[in-house]
Amino acid sequence: MHVVPLDKAIHAEIELELEIAKAKYGQHYFEVLCIEGGWGDTLDDSQALRLVRALNRTGSMFWEVIGRS
Fold it and tell me: Which of 15, 46, 48, 52 is at 20 to 30 A from 27, Cα to Cα?
């Protein structure tokens, strides 16, 4: 059985979600650039994945920050 290491699987998922976001909003969309630029620098893998999923699901990564009650 071939097992993909967790970090590679998460990286692939982030890259897939980023491609979806770029297709929806364009590669120069501010929030896409923020997530892509922060990933691996100020955002760890779980944060980047959470934000890009929020962007794709709600139209803004900021929903993850201000939309919670």
Answer: 46
Cα–chain center distance at 55: 8
| Three-class DSSP category at 39 | strand
CB 40 within 8 A of CB 15: no
User: CA angle, corner 36, sides to 20 and 13, nearest 5?
Assistant: 50
Alpha carbon distances (Å) from 6 to 3, 9, 20, 43, 46: 9, 5, 21, 17, 12
pLDDT along the chain (69 residues), means of 10: 71 97 97 95 93 95 69
Contacts of residue 24, Cβ cutoff 8 Å, sequence gap at least 6: 56
